[in-house]
UniProtKB/TrEMBL annotation, chain A:
<dbReference type="InterPro" id="IPR036345">
    <property type="entry name" value="ExoRNase_PH_dom2_sf"/>
</dbReference>
<protein>
    <recommendedName>
        <fullName>Exoribonuclease phosphorolytic domain-containing protein</fullName>
    </recommendedName>
</protein>
<comment type="similarity">
    <text>Belongs to the RNase PH family.</text>
</comment>
<dbReference type="Pfam" id="PF01138">
    <property type="entry name" value="RNase_PH"/>
</dbReference>
<dbReference type="InterPro" id="IPR050080">
    <property type="entry name" value="RNase_PH"/>
</dbReference>
<dbReference type="InterPro" id="IPR001247">
    <property type="entry name" value="ExoRNase_PH_dom1"/>
</dbReference>
<feature type="domain" description="Exoribonuclease phosphorolytic">
    <location>
        <begin position="25"/>
        <end position="168"/>
    </location>
</feature>
<dbReference type="InterPro" id="IPR027408">
    <property type="entry name" value="PNPase/RNase_PH_dom_sf"/>
</dbReference>
<dbReference type="InterPro" id="IPR020568">
    <property type="entry name" value="Ribosomal_Su5_D2-typ_SF"/>
</dbReference>
From TrEMBL, chain B:
<keyword id="KW-0271">Exosome</keyword>
<dbReference type="InterPro" id="IPR027408">
    <property type="entry name" value="PNPase/RNase_PH_dom_sf"/>
</dbReference>
<dbReference type="GO" id="GO:0005737">
    <property type="term" value="C:cytoplasm"/>
</dbReference>
<dbReference type="InterPro" id="IPR020568">
    <property type="entry name" value="Ribosomal_Su5_D2-typ_SF"/>
</dbReference>
<keyword id="KW-0963">Cytoplasm</keyword>
<feature type="region of interest" description="Disordered">
    <location>
        <begin position="115"/>
        <end position="141"/>
    </location>
</feature>
<feature type="region of interest" description="Disordered">
    <location>
        <begin position="221"/>
        <end position="244"/>
    </location>
</feature>
<dbReference type="GO" id="GO:0005730">
    <property type="term" value="C:nucleolus"/>
</dbReference>
<feature type="domain" description="Exoribonuclease phosphorolytic">
    <location>
        <begin position="61"/>
        <end position="205"/>
    </location>
</feature>
Length: 288, 434
């Protein structure tokens, strides 16, 4: 039975999504390493010491991550004798949500706390913490604009910022989301959902959707090793394990695409630094 | 934070018109304003290709970023607009709200200006961002900056009566958020610059009332027809919003938004010229007394102090000046007492063989007052006015260049204050390798 497609459908009849992408395409992603230039330790402002930073934007979602460390912990009681302490905090700005501005207190918003914890687990799986006993690495993520997928963008930004800071990692952690939408009998798997698609898939938008066949799955992997670091599914699967496997597969492909973009950004930054070392740098007053 | 020797060096350098980074007393640092591409209030599918670095805050109506080349200052400002019912005591005026966020840079910012007094013990606490006392200091600093900006700038920032669309029913509410990523001295200056540029960049869609006189409604606005004449209380859709971005206008009156210039006042004893008598023996004590009495306190004002200079200053005066040169507000902040000044001058006096304690008491007694002579106030405001004139001309040049480049290239230009004279020798430490 043919039903006319509505504007809120994720895929139109010709398999184009609401923002013009194909189902397996990720959003336009740009990474900028060293968005806040790193300061030396002897500056007059010790708290603004920044070892590395990165600004990642996936589509309209924009996330800035600042890494400080490894540095000394103030209190001896917080030290771990065999490894570094990883301190992760995620906060949003009041202007990050589309529509009205709202103030979110980072210490009481449960979603943010949960995502900070997840980010900490993800990064602990990748940083070689045992190389810096009794010190602290602190990662601060600030979400400047949120159009869906802020956890994934935060993971990508944190990885790039750690690389910019020169902290040794086992592998780059890349994150991407995937989902499945069941429309008119055919299963459509989409990669890198934006806010409207997430709302339709999880039924939070206060409209249709949220049927038992929709899946929304953010995934973080270490693509070069082929291991999955994080996968978070809050949808109800109607007893269809194959569907989950398909969506996971699509998400891993998406992570590989994200990895390509991130690796290109790292190489470009490295090339710039190398040229500067040889004395052939392009010097610009403005950055970003 | 700053040792007495360093403080002495900084003060001497200011007195001799050659500051530690090479500027003269009345020179600003080369702030860079990135005038961004502005998006409408609803997110649109992104079709930006080719620009390697992301440009604007797309989900806001206006945004700006103030940046100092090098690693010192970085401030983001975002302006979001929506339509609300006005407040009952001011039904014909729009609303502007301001919020400053210092959480990324901890409580280290504004150390010289804002929390005068509690300096040494907070170094330990600053490293651990989660202690409640550091957060409390942060909140105090935030609220102090917010209230200063509200008093000095907001009353003159926009034309409030023109922000009202239907007086009494619908007005624009501009919510301004300033996020300080890093700041190296003069946080008020930089925040006011960010605020002005953010407002300048804001584009508000053109909103008209849907009801004409005579009771005949205009054509439907948002797909809603049959709207009868309106002193109606239940008509929600009686506004037409023009979605064309070419018709979007900045908030009315924003060209007159003032800027804050912070003038820091440093004080020092100027030692008297050496006397011609060479014998220190017989009349030593009396001549030394005379020399002490002729030591006077001299004050000097500098513009756009760095953190190190702020800490040595005895007081700060924040002057808010609008583009016509009119002063919109003056606020004086006490300094940190200038204790370092006292210590640094004991060395001088010891050459004359006076007991250090006596002299110390005398100096400490005078320098612990963080005020400045009244006659200085006129001088301070005058130098602030001159400095602000320079700032405005730089901004206007930058704005014109921006306009020309947009027409030429059809891409997003970034704008820098590359005013060649005077900044060239500064910039060698501020380059970024790209």
């Amino acid at each position: 039975m043919a039903s006319s497609t509505r504007r809120t459908d994720i895929l139109s009849l010709i398999h184009i999504r609401s923002d013009g992408r194909r189902p397996h395409e990720i959003r336009h992603m740009s990474c900028h390493l060293g968005a806040l230039p790193s300061t030396a330790c002897g500056s007059a402002l010790p708290t603004s010491a920044c070892s590395g930073s990165a600004l990642v934007s996936m589509g309209l979602t924009q996330v800035l991550c600042v890494v400080r460390g490894p540095c000394d912990i103030g209190r001896r009681s917080d030290e771990l004798p065999d490894r570094a302490t990883l301190d992760v905090s995620m906060r949003t700005t009041p202007f990050s949500s589309p529509g009205d501005r709202r103030n979110v207190n980072p210490s009481t918003d449960r979603r943010l706390i949960e995502q900070s914890h997840l980010l900490q687990k993800v990064l602990s799986a990748s940083i070689l913490l045992h190389l810096y006993p009794k010190s602290k690495i602190s990662v601060t993520v600030m979400v400047l604009a949120d159009d869906g997928g802020r956890l994934e963008a935060a993971i990508n930004a944190a990885t790039l910022a750690l690389m910019d800071a020169g902290i040794p990692l086992k592998d780059m952690v890349c994150a991407c989301s995937a989902g499945r939408w069941n429309a008119g009998g055919s299963d459509d798997i989409v990669v890198d959902l934006n806010r409207r698609e997430i709302q339709t898939a999880t039924g939070m938008g206060g409209g249709g959707g949220g049927t038992s066949d929709t899946i929304y799955l953010p995934v973080a992997t270490m693509p070069q090793r082929g291991t999955i670091v994080l996968s978070q599914c809050e949808s109800r699967l109607s007893g269809d394990a194959d569907a989950f496997a398909q969506v996971l597969e699509a998400a891993m492909v998406g992570c590989q695409m994200v990895m390509d973009v991130m690796a290109a950004a790292v190489r470009e930054r490295g090339m710039g630094l190398w040229k500067a070392k040889e004395g052939k740098a392009n010097v610009m007053l403005n950055d970003w | 934070m700053v040792s007495p020797a360093e403080a002495h060096y900084i003060i001497e350098s200011c007195f001799s018109d050659f500051r530690i980074d090479g500027r003269s007393r009345l020179e600003h640092r080369p702030y860079t304003v990135s005038n961004r591409k502005v998006g409408a209030s609803a997110p649109s599918p992104s079709a930006v290709v080719g620009a390697s670095s992301p440009s604007s805050l797309i989900l806001s109506n206006g945004s700006s970023r103030i940046h100092l080349p090098g690693s010192s200052t970085d401030i983001l400002c975002s302006v979001k607009a929506d339509l609300v019912h006005p407040s009952p005591c001011k039904p014909r005026e729009g609303i502007v709200e301001l919020n400053v966020d210092l959480s990324l840079c901890g409580s280290g910012v504004g150390g010289g200006m804002l929390d005068g007094g509690s300096s040494s013990s907070s170094t330990q606490q600053r490293m651990n961002n989660n202690t409640s006392s550091s957060r409390r200091k942060e909140r105090e600093a935030e609220s102090q900056i917010t209230s200063l900006l509200q008093r000095l700038i907001l009353p003159h920032a926009v034309n409030y009566t023109q922000l009202a669309i239907l007086p009494g029913r619908y007005v624009w509410r501009l919510s301004i958020d300033i996020v300080v990523l890093r700041c190296d001295g003069c946080i008020l200056d930089a925040c006011s610059l960010a605020l002005r540029e953010g407002l300048y960049n804001t584009k508000l869609p053109c909103v008209k009332s849907a009801v004409m006189e005579g009771g005949m409604p205009d054509v439907e606005g948002e797909g809603f027809g049959g709207n009868n004449s309106g002193d109606g209380s239940n008509n929600k859709n009686d506004l037409i919003v023009d979605g064309d971005i070419k018709n979007a206008m900045p908030p009315p009156g924003v060209e007159n938004c003032p800027l804050v210039v912070t003038v820091s006042v440093l004080s020092a004893f100027v030692p008297p010229p050496p006397s011609s008598t060479s014998d220190n023996t017989a009349s030593s004590s009396s001549s030394q007394q005379r020399r002490h009495q002729t030591q006077r306190r001299h004050y000097i004002s500098i513009i756009d102090a760095r953190t190190e200079e702020e800490v040595c200053a005895s007081s700060h005066v924040c002057v808010s000046i609008d583009p016509c040169g009119l002063v919109c507000g003056v606020h004086t902040l006490g300094g940190s007492g200038g204790g370092g000044v006292g210590d640094s001058f004991t060395a001088d006096s010891q050459e004359e063989g006076v007991a250090a304690d006596n002299l110390n008491d005398e100096i400490m007694g005078v320098s612990s007052s963080s005020s400045m002579p009244l006659a200085m106030l006129g001088d301070v405001v005058a130098s602030a006015a001159m400095a602000s004139k320079n700032l405005y001309s730089l901004l206007n040049d930058a704005g014109e260049r921006n306009v020309n480049r947009t027409k030429a290239n059809n891409i997003v230009p970034t704008v820098g204050n590359d005013d060649g004279n005077g900044y060239g020798y500064l910039l060698k430490d501020h380059f970024l390798i790209q």
